[in-house]
Specification:
- The chain has one domain.
- Helix content is 66%, strand content 0%.
- The chain has four helices and no strands.
- The longest helix is centred in the middle third of the chain and has 17 residues.
Length: 65
């Protein structure tokens, strides 16, 4: 099952787990790759994530690059 069509419930991700964090990082990375030049606020609204979650994901993405 590709990640694009998965839901959090289908993957059994628990709040606070490393798997959920990795899942959200990949969602944010994918959105940023497809929508170059978008703002953090656009990512938050498009993916329906908490602002702190998006900020943490961006921090992780920058650290890895």
């Amino acid at each position: 099952m590709p990640l694009e069509f998965c839901t959090i419930e289908a993957l059994n991700l628990r709040p606070g787990s490393k798997d959920l964090e990795a899942f959200n990082v990949e969602r944010v990375r994918g959105y940023l790759e497809c929508n170059l030049g978008c703002t953090k606020k656009e990512v938050i609204h498009a993916l329906g994530l908490n602002p702190r979650t998006v900020a943490k994901a961006i921090k992780i993405i920058r650290a890895r690059s």
